[in-house]
Amino acid sequence: MLEVSGLTVRFGGITALDHVGFTVRPGDMVGLIGPNGAGKTTLFNCLTRRYQADEGTVRWDGADLLAVAPHAIVAMGIARTFQNLGLFPELSVRDNVLVGAHRHAKAGFLSAALRLPSVRREEAALRAEADALLDRLDLAAVADHPAAGLPFGTLKRIELARALAARPRLLLLDEPCNGLSHGEVDEFAALLRALREERELTVIVVEHHMGFVMGICDRVVCLEFGSKIADGTPAEVQNDQAVRDAYLGAAA
Ligand SMILES: Nc1ncnc2c1ncn2[C@@H]1O[C@H](COP(=O)(O)OP(=O)(O)OP(=O)(O)O)[C@@H](O)[C@H]1O
């Protein structure tokens, strides 16, 4: 489904990704781990076309993803969450989620400005879909509340709802457990497992919380200094000496 090959990104003298390759099958939940600065977020930024790759290829459903314009990525069925949250603080929770649904709005500028009945019907349908997501993610009670001021765990769920509103097939999660309590991490893992089944998602998750990664992922890829040092089942990667030396010794 996703085939990354020889992916290389350089920033001046730093090689943030050095000929990285891996594949993701439909329905996989892949963990992407590695020390700070290993290139994990850079990889996400390449997959969403925020960063330009210097070398390599990324094939997504047979298409050349690196030839796709950044604004067209969501329409290709790829959505992401951000490490530091990508929400609009002053907008309501519902409107933040509706921002994610934007690509499904078909109305053009003129028909939207004239508020034609077809536009109102479309808006109502998107709103109903957003409300169903808010219900599912236990956010209905705060739907009309501005995102600003809500607890961090709630903001993380809003961020997830916003990404899901785009109806992605590939979901990229950047440190979804960062800042969550132990209990919240367990709840998030259960929610993600269920959503993956319900919405037939393929997921790549960058995360430092090893209990979460090893408990939920089918496969784990480990990066160090921009290079892939391991790729296998959670058990294989956990027992890999290079991974233990580079990362798990410090993370555990
Ligand atoms: N826009 C940029 N300009 C210059 N250097 C960058 C840029 N983005 C990333 N880098 C560098 O690329 C390397 C990889 O960074 P990246 O953020 O991808 O790591 P990471 O594995 O996501 O780390 P973390 O776990 O801390 O989020 C780092 O050395 C970083 O400083």
Automatic annotation (TrEMBL):
One of its GO terms (molecular function) is ATP hydrolysis activity. It comes from the Bacteria. The keyword Transport applies. GO terms for cellular component: plasma membrane. The keyword Chloroplast does not apply. Pfam families: ABC_tran, BCA_ABC_TP_C. Keywords: ATP-binding, Nucleotide-binding, Transport. Residues 2-250 form the ABC transporter domain. PANTHER family: ABC TRANSPORTER ATP-BINDING PROTEIN (PTHR45772:SF4), CONSERVED COMPONENT OF ABC TRANSPORTER FOR NATURAL AMINO ACIDS-RELATED (PTHR45772). This is ABC transporter ATP-binding protein. It comes from Actinokineospora fastidiosa.
